[in-house]
Amino acid sequence: MKVTIDGQSIDVEPGTTILQAARMIGGDLVPPAMCYYSKLKGSGGKCRCCLVEVSKGSEADPRPMPKLMASCVTGCMDGMEVNSKSSARVTEARKSVTEFLLINHPLDCPICDQAGECDLQNLSFEHGNPKSRFIEEKRTFEPEDIGPNIQLHMNRCILCQRCVQVADQLTDNRVHGVLDRGDHANISTGISKAIDNEFSGNMIDVCPVGALTDKTFRFKSRVWFNKPFNAHRECTTPGCCGKTTVWMFGGEIQRVTGRKDEYHEVEEFICNSCRFDHKNVNDWVIEGPREFEKDSVINQNNYTQKLEKVEIDTEKTILLGRDIDRKKISMAAIPLTTNDKKS
Ligand code: SF4
Ligand code: FES
């Protein structure tokens, strides 16, 4: 089947969605996705970020589709023509969806651990309005403790339901889900049961915002001060690939996550033992620096070349007493093994 998106054509298998076809083409035309996750069955269709305009339904029925379609759940048809980035109507709709998502989402990026790798931050950067028109009070929830490893900030949740799908598909006993309806809908364990399944940590990786964060990394560092390296270990947990990204600050591993691709989806899921219990460098075989998108904030201070000293261009008084930290950010004392890929 042939499908054309923003003037670029590609042949796809029957059953391919417009979003998947767009990802095969790649580049700017790929719609943003806050709830679809290719590794989770049944994901998508909830956030409406991925709306596109279908200007020609198919070769057999060339009529345009009257409404904008969610590309993550709309299948391609032979001869279909789609407008994504090229459509002013789509740009306007994405702007509205972003505004809608930000109605209740707190603007607490300066203290949020997700800042720097948050899909909602990226979406706001692309499509956000600098001013909010929302004058009502934002929806807030009482803090709930959902266990020893994962911090739930319900106020930040956009109800994409990816975490529920992780619990359904990777663990054998889901203890949390979406409770209540409408404006009251929230992610909760209902009876404050701890989420302690061996694969529950993957909920942190799939959460597009800072609603689920790693308690072992909480407030330790901003992600752009950490250096991500690919690493692996012989993991004995059934189902765990043992291949991770370790986030280092100097010689210290501060955080372990799954390896994410350009769409911020993990390549493979990892177990809680790799994620939370192995923070010693000797636990891992370090493969080399992780490749990131060029414009990512995480890619600031490119470290594929060794830096003797990191200079942060800000008022001197703010940095007083931060010399040790600067050395750790530079990682000048640590030998650099590259995997021959430039970030
Ligand atoms: S907690 Fe995160 S992953 Fe779960 S529904 Fe909310 S935004 Fe989505
Ligand atoms: S990514 Fe398509 S509706 Fe959310």
TrEMBL record:
Record domain 2Fe-2S ferredoxin-type: where: 1-88
Cellular localisation: Membrane
The organism's place on the tree of life at top rank: Bacteria
Keyword presence, tRNA-binding: no
Listed GO MF terms: 2 iron, 2 sulfur cluster binding; 4 iron, 4 sulfur cluster binding; metal ion binding; oxidoreductase activity
Cofactor(s) listed in the protein's UniProt record: [4Fe-4S] cluster; [2Fe-2S] cluster
Keywords: 2Fe-2S, 4Fe-4S, Iron, Iron-sulfur, Membrane, Metal-binding, NAD, Translocase
Keyword Iron-sulfur in annotation: yes
Every 4Fe-4S His(Cys)3-ligated-type domain range: 89-128
GO CC annotation, single: membrane
Family to which this protein belongs: Belongs to the complex I 75 kDa subunit family.
UniProt name for this protein: NADH-quinone oxidoreductase chain 3
